[in-house]
Amino acid sequence: MSKIISGFSKYSKSEKINWLVNTYFSNPDDARVILEQYLHSNEKLQQLHDEFIENTVSNYFLPLGVAPNFLINGKTYAIPMAIEESSVVAAASKAAKFWLDRGGFKTKVISTKKIGQVHFMYRGNAQRLHAYFKSIKTQLFADTDALTANMKKRGGGILDIELRDKTDALANYYQLHVTFETLDAMGANFINSCLEQFAKTLKNEALNFKGFTEEEHHIDIVMSILSNYVPECVVRAEVSCPVADLQEKEGVSGVEFAEKFVQAVTIAEIEPYRAVTHNKGIMNGVDAVVLATGNDFRAIEAGVHAYAAKDGAYSSLSHAKIEDGVFRFWVDLPLALGTVGGLTGLHPLVKFALELLGKPSAKELMQIVAVAGLAQNFAALRSLTTTGIQQGHMKMHLMNILNQFEASNKEKTKLSSYFKDTTVTHSAVAEALNDLRR
């Protein structure tokens, strides 16, 4: 059967499935069963999924976990996390419990501006372009009144429009650089609609501007699009306590723990190879909450990692210090999130997650997400600088290994008990399971 197909999007779902399993799978019936068992569990939800994206053939499930006991600015939260990686939810929960008795997490939103740009080419005198921009700036705002009316009523809208000369990097390249306040909406559609209107006004009004030469009347619009880099939409989350309060058990003093912890963070600040993995740990917590609340984790990832390199070299997003006997650990994250629009009012589990969090505003959600990232980072560094990362991680990974070997519930119970005091490795689990079965 040919692997090239025309009109695939017009096929019914059953026709799509039939073509896929018969074309690409050695056992079409088994492949069909896998797709269909996740397809018919909830017809209402399935209709939503079919309208979210194109060419749906099934549903892909992730676990939804909850990390309780987060004390944030004096308020207690149970944080929803959608993620498949072992130990992430457990680590976040453990960090939340650790800081619960040490004052909890403190957060503040530093700024909430978002950015969009109209990219265009202009082959003429820069001073005349600036004069043209100055003459139409008021009209740029006016031409988007219909688009911004509702946002303005809520206190948001377009904050400013700048003309930026980028010709030193690319010949003839300029941009309109626009800042927005979108309140509780992530605002992608709002921003892009405004930008496309700016582009029309910019191009059309140039034809009538008397200050241009004949050639300068023609402005070439390349594209109009929001930016997922939001260095002015930033939230800070932090924890602090007297160094002595960090001691949990005999053998490691609070001072020893704090000093080693700060050293580990400093290494991530100066060593990019470490910083990438360090920041990936932060994003374990961030992405899990972003996904659970129906936000765009790809946009968040791209913006956060760009922010980590804002000073010219990729570096740690979190920072730590000891000052006057007090340990302080904090993170600044650029997070453009929404609690209205998109999936937030459609997907039942997203609505569940937002209600679990007390129906937060976008600013409140920024703070919760940043805390989840900081908690995850704290838990990882705490393990790395004390017992090592693998001890706890592999304990959590034990069930994944046992499931690979199709262990029974009885076998899982016995081996979970056995590995409480034994190092978990793939080969060790395989050997123990074989011994048990013999």
The chain-level mean pLDDT equals 93
The ordered string of helix (H) and strand (E) elements is HHHEEHEEHHEEHEEHHHEEHHHHH
**Uncertain parts:** none
Write down the overall geometry: globular
Layout of helices and strands:
Blueprint (H helix, E strand, L loop, with lengths): L12 H12 L3 H10 L5 H10 L11 E9 L2 E8 L5 H13 L5 E4 L4 E8 L4 H17 L2 H9 L3 E9 L7 E9 L6 H19 L13 E7 L7 E9 L11 H17 L1 H21 L4 H12 L9 E6 L2 E9 L13 H9 L5 H23 L4 H16 L4 H10 L7 H12 L1
Antiparallel strand pairs: 1-2, 3-8, 4-6, 4-7, 5-6, 8-10, 9-10
Describe the structure.
- The chain has 438 residues and is α+β, with helices and mostly antiparallel strands.
- The chain is built from 15 helices and 10 strands.
- The chain has helices at 13-24, 28-37, 43-52, 88-100, 126-142, 145-153, 188-206, 254-270, 272-292, 297-308, 348-356, 362-384, 389-404, 409-418, 426-437, and strands at 64-72, 75-82, 106-109, 114-121, 157-165, 173-181, 220-226, 234-242, 318-323, 326-334.
- It has a 4-stranded antiparallel beta sheet. Strands 5-6-4-7 form a 4-stranded antiparallel beta sheet. The chain has a two-stranded antiparallel ribbon with strand order 1-2.
- A hairpin with a 7-residue loop joins strand 5 and strand 6 (173-181).
- It starts with 12 loop residues before the first helix and ends with a helix.
- The mean pLDDT is 93.
Please outline what is shown here:
The chain has 438 residues and is α+β, with helices and mostly antiparallel strands.
Task: Pick out its properties.
438 residues, alpha+beta, globular, 15 helices, 48% helix, four-stranded antiparallel β-sheet
